[in-house]
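Quick one, probably user error.
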């Protein structure tokens, strides 16, 4: 989505069931810069605002926004901001964060609409991936249960055969 709206940086924050950021995937930032920044964001400031209010925010300059929490050392400068929640059937899965609109002072309402549509599709894809993962786990459990029953039945048959042999 970063090139679609002309953002210098983008991130996908995936949250755990409690709403905290558990994965933070960045785009537009090289690995060395990402490493120097340090640990994942914890969801304070603007990132936390989107988590708490679960709605989109378009901000012209995050450096003067009252919700700003600040940047860690070695973080690249950022100004314009667009944050959009990702949800499916009312369940929050994560957020898209975009910063530094290229060629304009801030993100437009059209940019926001595009990212919200993208977030809808991303939410469906993320939900499908989670469902697929759950199905794989269930398949493994089913297979283990089948093997367990086969072993159990085989052992019972062997014990019965041994019992018959002993009676003989």
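Nope, works fine. Designed sequence:
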């Amino acid at each position: 989505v970063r090139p679609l709206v002309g953002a210098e940086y983008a991130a996908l924050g995936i949250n755990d069931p409690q709403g905290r950021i558990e994965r933070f995937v960045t785009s537009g930032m090289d690995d060395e810069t990402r490493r120097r920044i340090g640990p994942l964001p914890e969801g304070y400031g603007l990132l936390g605002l989107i988590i708490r209010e679960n709605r989109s925010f378009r901000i012209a300059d995050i450096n003067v926004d009252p919700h700003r929490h600040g940047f860690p050392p070695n973080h690249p400068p950022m100004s314009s901001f667009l944050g959009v929640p990702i949800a499916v059937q009312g369940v929050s899965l994560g957020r898209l964060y975009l910063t530094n609109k290229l060629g304009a002072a801030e993100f437009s309402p059209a940019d926001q609409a595009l990212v919200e549509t993208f977030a809808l599709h991303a939410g469906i894809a993320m939900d499908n991936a989670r469902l697929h993962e759950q199905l794989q786990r269930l398949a493994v459990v089913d297979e283990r249960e089948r093997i367990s029953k086969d072993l159990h039945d085989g052992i019972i048959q062997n014990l019965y055969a041994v019992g018959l042999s002993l009676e003989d």
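Residues 13 and 94 are 5 Å apart (CA to CA).
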